[in-house]
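[[Encoded backbone]]
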Amino acid sequence: MKCEIIKDLLPVYCDGLASEETRSEVEAHLAECEECRNHLKLMKESVPEVPKPDIQPMKKIKRSLRLRLALVIGMVCIGLFAGLYNMLVANPMTISSKNVSVRHFAGRQGEKLYMCNIDIRGQKREVGCTIRSNEEYIIDEQNNCVWVDGEKLVAAEIDGENIYAPADGKMYESGVLTLVIECKTPFKCMQYECTPIYNPFMAAEQELTLRPCLPFRQDVTKALFDTRSFAQEYVATSLGEGSTMTIHCRDKDVVIDLHELAVEEGLLSE
C-alpha cells in the first residue's frame, strides 16, 4: 500500500477508529517503512496535551450547596416540630363535634348527695358523694368528717390515698341528672376548660372546651389523663329553665339543654 494512502489513514489509526483489517495493513506498512513511522511519531508529538480541568471550584460550589440544603432541611424540620408541638402539646386544637357524643340518665332518686370542697393537688375542687337511702350518716363537726355506717365518707382517692369528706359540706335530697361526654380520639390525654369545674349548682350556661393532646408538659390541674369519657352530675332542682351545657368544638358548638333533659328523665316537671 502506498505511503500517501497510509498517511491518510494514520489519523484514523491513531484515534482507534480504524477497522481491524485497516489496522493490520497500516501496522504491516509501518513495520517496513521508516518514513511513515517518523510521520506517525510526528503526529503523536504534535497532538497537544489536553489539560485536566480544575474541579476545586466545583467542589466548593457543591459543598456550599450541600450546606445550604442541610440548613434548609434543618429549618423545615425545626418548624415542623414546633408546629406539631404547639398543635399536639402546648396549644392543641379543640375536638371536632363529629367526635363528641353525649348520653344522659337519671340517678339517685331518693338518695342523698353530699357536696363538699376537697383539696386535689393543691386546688380546691367541689365533689359530690352519694349516700344511699339505706345508709345512716352523721356529720361530725368535731372531727371534721362525715360518718356513713360507721366509716368515714371518702370523697376521692388520689394516688392510692383516700381523701375524706369534711364536715362543712351540704346535703341534698334530689334526683341527679348525669351527663356522660364521650370523645372519639386516639389521644389518651385531654386538656379541658370547664366553667364551673365539677360544680352542679351553677349549671346555667356552663361551658366546656376539650382539646385532645399528648401528655407531655401538661398542667395536671387542666388535663385529664387516660380518659376518653367523663361525667358531669347535676342536682335536678338546680336546673332551671335556660340551664345549658355548651361544648366548644373547632367546627361548631354543641349546646345541650340540661333543663329539658331533666324533664325528659322525669326529674323535673315542665
In short: The chain has four domains: 3-46, 51-91, 94-110+174-270, 111-173. Helices lie at 3-14, 20-32, 34-46, 56-90, 258-264.
